[in-house]
Amino acid sequence: MGVVEEAHNVKVIGSGKTTVVLGHGFGTDQSVWKHLVPYLIDDYRVVLYDNMGSGPTNPDYFDFERYATLEGYAYDLLAILEELRIDSCIYLGHSLSSMTGVIASIFRPDLFSKLILLSASPR
Questions:
Q1: pLDDT for 123
Q2: For the sheet containing 18-23, what is the strand order?
Q3: Contact yes or no for 10/47 (Cβ under 8 A)
Q4: Which residue of 71, 73, 76, 112 is 20 to 30 Å from 65, comparing CA positions?
């Protein structure tokens, strides 16, 4: 496991050819997907991660300046995709992570085949 994977508590489950990345909303962690994941793992490779400052992430990695904007979270998402060598994914983001996915897809549109946004926060 790489540094980024460890820092964000990354879990990869399922065995499908298509990768689905699930990003949780502000104030939650990846456990919010526990009822959805069983429906996906037979057909998709599912990537779960925690945004910095959520769940069991290491507080030593939190940087107030970096995470004062959504770009910091987007750079984390791109680092996770890079470390896992994901060259295309369906990204499902809730709240804060919806906009994280939008920004990341602007920086690297080649990595995202679809964006699914749930209750996307405008900021």
A1: 64
A2: 11-13, 44-48, 18-23, 89-94, 112-118
A3: yes
A4: 112
Parallel/antiparallel/unpaired status of strands 112-118 and 44-48: unpaired
pTM of the model: 0.94
Q: Which domains does the chain have, with CATH numbers?
A: 3-118 (3.40.50.1820)
Please give the mean pLDDT across all residues of the chain.
Answer: 94
Task: Read off the pLDDT of each residue in 115-122 and give the average, rounded to a whole number.
Answer: 91
What are the phi and psi torsion angles at 46 (to 5°)? -110, 130
* pLDDT tens digit sequence for 53-63: 898 888 888 88
At 82, list the tokens.
């890079």
* CB contact burial 28-57 (16+ within 10 A = b; e otherwise): bbbeebeeebeebeeebbbbbbbbbbbbeb
Distance CA 57, CA 50 (A): 7
Q: What angle, 0 to 180 degrees and rounded to 10, lies between the N-to-C axes of helices 70-83 and 96-107?
A: 70
